[in-house]
Each structure stands twice: as C-alpha cells, then as structure tokens.
Amino acid sequence: MHHFKKFIFCFLLIPVAFNAQESSYTKDISDYLDGNGTMLQYEYAYGELLKMLSNNFPQNENNAQGWEYLRANKEKALGEMKSLIIPIYKSNFTHNEIKEMSAFYSSEAGLQLISDRSKMTEAHKEVLNTFYNSATGQKIMSKQEVLTMEISKVSESWSRDLYETSISLLNNG
User: Is residue 116 part of a domain?
Assistant: First the structure.
C-alpha cells in the first residue's frame, strides 16, 4: 500500500511539474515578444488606428463610450495579439532557443538593434553576427518565411477584428 501511495503521489505531481514548465515556456515567449520589439509594433499599430479613426469619427456625445472603450481596451487587445503569436513561437522554437533569443535581445547589441540599428558599433555587429551564426540564429533565419507567413495571418485577423469592432463602436455611437 505504501508503494501505491508513492506512485499516486508521483503521478499527481507530473502534471503540476509539466504545467509549471509549460507556463514558464509561455512566459518566456511573452517576455521575448516584449523584449524584441514585436509588441511595440502592435502598440504602435493600435495607436495609429486610433489616430486614423479620430479623423473619420471625431469624438462626440454619441460615440464617447466607444472611444472610452477603445482607449481602455488597448492592453487587452495587445494581450490577445500576443496570445495568438505565442503558439507560433512554441511550434517553431524550443524553450532553450527562446531563452537564447531573449538573452540576445536583452544584450547591449540586441537593445541597440531594436532602438536604432544605424547606431550599432562594430562590437555590436560582431555580437549580432555571432548570434546569427549560432544554431539558434541559423534556425531563426531558416524559419523566417514560415514565421512571417503565420504571424501575418494572425496579425491580419487581429487587425480586421479590431478595425471592425472599432467601426461598429464609433458608427453606432
């Protein structure tokens, strides 16, 4: 009976350990998307959409609630976009590869690449080349077409839904 309890105890812990590992993997991808500038692009796109809509639908009494919703919904919308991208990275990169990618983008060279590529020093370029010549860097290069296609698909869907929701909120206001 004692062995049976040990077996049940170990069996019950396996899913907990797996879920902890899985949520760590998801969090690491999420952090990577924040760190490599991906989410900044979507934040910029959201802001540009609101600018464009403000030209076509200036805020007034009738659409004030719609505008309030769109401004308050930004973080939620960005979170939804991130949740669409995470599975794409999970299906294309291992957890360790994501960690290596994050390490590069949090390095001085990676940060400079994101902020202003034209100001990269020779030392930065050397770090960048070393990274892209690594196994992970090579995998990124080989997956570029697939990533672009898959991310474009979810981006288009997200953008279309966001635009349609925005128009609906501001038109009916």
Answer: yes
Band (15; pLDDT cuts 50, 70, 90):
very low
Q: What does the radius of gyration of the chain's CA atoms come to, in whole angstroms? A: 21
Q: How far apart are CA 40 and CA 73, in angstroms?
A: 16
Indicate the residue type of 48.
Answer: E
Q: Say which amino acid occupies 91.
A: S
State the DSSP code for 36.
T
Pair 53, 170: CB distance under 8 Å:
yes
**pTM, rounded to two decimals:** 0.80
Structural domain span for residue 66? 19-171
Number of helices and strands (H, E) in the chain? 8, 0
User: Is residue 6 included in any domain, yes or no?
Assistant: no
Pure H helices in 36-134: 38-56, 64-72, 74-92, 95-106, 108-116, 122-133
